[in-house]
């Protein structure tokens, strides 16, 4: 008769179980990172288009409001492309991990559909960045030049500098403002009219 003794080593996971647990951890981590990247991306789109867009269009005059919104979209495009790259990288990792395990047909079809959606979203981010935002700003820029509003930009810069004057300090001897006033009629640096 043989003595079958139950030891602690019998409770340890087998090498195959360890590999499976590691794959599940990698798959779950990649899925969480991809969901975070896509959530940041979609949340930014909603914030810009639903919250910032109407406010800018309502508060800022049309030529300038569109340019401000287009500049914000152009800056956001960098973030959108980075999020798309992270989501695609996570899908590559998940694909590499899932190739080694056998699953059912429905899970395989869902994974394939998920990959296609990630590729389509990344393509949309690149399309928006390279073609859509420049196409949105080109007609407006042409309208600004055609209306002769380009000199208005210089006036806005002058007004901005004018409003940046320093507050009066506590020291009564120093009466000169820190920010210089823009040159204009009657200023010491202005030439003859």
Q: Secondary-structure element order, as H and E?
A: HHHH
- State the share of residues found in helices, binned by percent: over 70%
Overall spatial form: elongated
What proportion of the residues form beta strands (DSSP E)?
under 5%
Structural class: mainly alpha
Number of strands: 0
Gyration radius over CA: 30 Å
Number of helices: 4
Average pLDDT works out at 77
Low-confidence stretches: none
Q: In whole angstroms, how far apart are the ends? A: 118 Å
Largest sheet: none
Describe this structure in words.
The chain is elongated, with a radius of gyration of 30 Å. The chain has a domain at 16-133. 72% of the residues lie in helices and 0% in strands. The model has no long low-confidence stretch (mean pLDDT 77). It has four helices and no strands. The chain has helices at 15-59, 62-98, 105-146, 150-163. The chain is mainly alpha-helical.
Name a few traits of the molecule.
single chain; mainly alpha; 72% helix
Helices and strands, with pairings:
Layout (H helix, E strand, L loop, with lengths): L14 H45 L2 H37 L6 H42 L3 H14 L30
């Amino acid at each position: 008769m043989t003595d079958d003794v139950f030891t602690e080593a019998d409770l340890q996971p087998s090498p195959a179980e360890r590999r499976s647990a590691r794959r599940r951890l990698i798959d779950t981590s990649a899925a969480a990172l991809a969901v975070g990247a896509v959530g940041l991306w979609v949340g930014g789109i909603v914030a810009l288009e639903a919250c910032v867009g109407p406010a800018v269009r309502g508060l800022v005059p049309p030529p300038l409001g569109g340019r401000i919104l287009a500049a914000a979209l152009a800056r956001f495009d960098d973030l959108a492309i980075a999020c798309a790259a992270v989501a695609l990288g996570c899908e590559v990792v998940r694909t590499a991990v899932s190739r080694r395990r056998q699953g059912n047909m429905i899970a395989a079809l869902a994974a394939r559909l998920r990959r296609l959606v990630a590729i389509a979203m990344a393509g949309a981010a690149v399309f928006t960045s390279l073609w859509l935002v420049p196409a949105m700003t080109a007609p407006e820029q042409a309208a600004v030049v055609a209306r002769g509003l380009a000199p208005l930009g210089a006036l806005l810069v002058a007004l901005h500098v004018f409003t940046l004057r320093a507050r009066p300090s506590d020291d009564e001897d120093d009466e000169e403002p820190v920010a210089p006033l823009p040159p204009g009629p009657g200023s010491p640096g202005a030439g003859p009219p």
